[in-house]
Amino acid sequence: MTVSGRSRGFMLMGAVVLTVLTACSMSPTMELAAPAASGCPARGLPRATTGPPDTLSLRWYRASVERDVRLSSSWCGTVGDDVFLESPSPAFPTWSGEGALRVATWNYEVGAGRLLEFIGEELGLDCRGGGPLRADGVQPFVLLLQEAWRRSGDLPSVERNQLVPWTVDPERQQPVLDVVGVARACGLALLYVPSARNGPDDGPHADEDKGNAILSTLPLTAPIALELPFEAGRKVAVAANVRAPGGERVRLVSAHLDVASTLFRTLVSGNQTRARQAKGLIDGLEKAERDGPLTGVVVVGGDFNSLAGNESALKHMRAAFPQSPEWDGLPTWLPLSFPVDHIFFRRSGFTNFTIEGYRRIEEAYGSDHLGRRLEISYESARARD
Q1: Nearest to 223 by CA among 85, 56, 62
Q2: Bridge partner residues of 266 (DSSP)
Q3: How far apart are CA 239 and CA 241, in angstroms?
Q4: Which residues are within 8 A (CB) of 283 and not within 5 positions of it... i.e. 6 or more apart?
Q5: Bridge partner residues of 80 (DSSP)
């Protein structure tokens, strides 16, 4: 079949228009969204107003592109409510004096990882015995979790034809305690926001959803959920603040990016999936900073699904978090040895905060990921004079 010059011109013009339209739908811009009654960021509502500086009400940010809002809303309608337990056990020590805060990030693979063992071995809090909590000598810590899972009898009913992901490892016997149960057993503060169901109603884990979480020995305030630009699935980063010894706010963020988008979007965009989601995360955190409360010190840990240590998503994160520790060249995803897990740091003029001991955690604890950890050291102005 012969194609005329005019036909080729129309085809080329159509391809250009399609590319432009697709590119327009790839904006990483985020917006503050008013929550609906279900807890999902609502469609069609005006920009939400900010609350008190250290509010305990969850604040939502979402991607501003209509396609992202539509798809994320469909997925959000299949999960349960968020969980926010702002106060840890009073047995835990405060972050005081010239002490340090330990921060770890870990993807524990929807229950495959042994979370209680991780907390005991890596963070020094043994709450596996079921007896009274003994927190003497525990260093203050915050644990950033990806692929956290929650069991609930109040999840919405969903069928296989709805937008739900497949069940992760359907033959797996889940632990007795989900992330909420672990938080209660260990006396930890918790922020958990589900991103997706763990399979449909007729699946083996119909009463489960999964998402990102923050566990902390310190009280949490100003909880935030950031619904990232939609690619292969719904991803909701979570953030909350803790107080440093001098009263400064430190924002901790747990994030999880997609591996790839649909085939069409991957081809058209050159697989900018993770770069777009990273930009959305950065934009959302910048808007949250402007909306208040001001923090200045931000730590982002997570599973960035990066295939190389110098890919675009990581470059964007390092540019936005210029005091981040250098990548050590070590992989953290065990099946194919990819460098997927990272921690980023920004202190915006607060020179009394420094990071030390950034390293890979060498035990997987049943997950397919190795975690990472560091310590945030604090030095008062008096000590520096």
Answers
A1: 56
A2: none
A3: 7
A4: 28, 29, 30
A5: none
CA end-to-end distance (rounded Å), the chain: 82
Is-contact 278 232, C-beta < 8 A? no
Distance of alpha carbon 102 from its chain centroid, rounded? 18
pTM, two decimals, is 0.90
> What is the C-alpha separation between 121 and 83, in angstroms, rounded?
26
In which region does residue 89 sit, left (phi positive, over 0), alpha (psi from -120 to 50) or beta (all else)? beta
Q: How far apart (Å, rounded) are the C-alpha atoms in residues 141 and 103?
A: 6
Amino acid at 103: V
- Reported as a single tens digit per residue, the pLDDT across 146-197 is 999 999 988 988 776 666 777 888 888 889 999 999 999 999 999 999 999 9
Token digits for 225? 């959920």
* CA 359/CA 183 separation, integer angstroms: 25
With contact defined as beta carbons under 8 Å apart, do 170 and 131 qualify? no
Q: How many CA atoms lie within 13 A of 75 on its CB side?
A: 29
Class of domain 5-384 as given by CATH: alpha beta
